[in-house]
Amino acid sequence: MKLVKVYVTLKPSVLDSQGEAIKSAVHSMGYDQVEKVSMGKYFELHFQDYENLEKDVDAICDELLTNPNIETYRYEILEEK
Amino acid sequence: MKLVKVYVTLKPSVLDSQGEAIKSAVHSMGYDQVEKVSMGKYFELHFQDYENLEKDVDAICDELLTNPNIETYRYEILEEK
């Protein structure tokens, strides 16, 4: 089994309004040392082992998990017992 | 500067309906090798350097970024140039 951890974030050129809102809330809690907050999505996919796993992960990320117009992704593939 | 990456996931006992929906969509794309999908949230917080950063990160996670009834979190603190 493989565990694929996918991190989806907004492209740097896109305004992260959720991140900005969280930054304001953090400041109102008194933590002024926080200079920037970004919010994204996180997925864990558990795969059976097989060849060409990465190609399929790319397809799933491109077609389902992200909006390629505004989001970008990275992932890591871990061995799972 | 420190970069804090926070991963928020549902507790295992909580039904992950978004994850289930994504798993169904992945299967309908033909990728039957995916056995389980979990969806969570991902945050990046950029902090000024200071002592006791972890205590504040814990407070921000507990009070703002997660719903402690149904979610759990982990984070990593990285050095940022």
Instruction: Spell out the CATH superfamily of chain A.
Output: Phosphoribosylformylglycinamidine synthase subunit PurS
What count of domains describes the coordinates of chain A?
1
* Overall shape of chain A: elongated
Instruction: Work out the strand percent of chain A.
Output: 35-45%
| Helical amount of chain A | 25-40%
Query: How many extended strands of chain A?
Result: 3
Structure explained in plain terms:
Two copies of one chain form a homodimer. With 81 residues, chain A is of the alpha+beta class. The first copy, chain A, has a three-stranded antiparallel β-sheet. Chain A is built from two helices and three strands, in the order βαβαβ. Chain A has one domain: Phosphoribosylformylglycinamidine synthase subunit PurS (Mth169, Chain: A), CATH 3.30.1280.10. Chains A and B meet through β1, α1, β2 and α2 of A and β1, α1, β2 and α2 of B.
Task: From the structure above, extract its key features.
homodimer, Mth169, Chain: A, 81 residues, three-stranded antiparallel beta sheet, elongated, 2 helices
What is this entry, summarized?
Chain A has two helices and three strands. The first copy, chain A, has helices at 17-28, 53-65; strands spanning 2-10, 34-47, 71-79. The interface between A and B is medium-sized, with 34 and 34 residues.
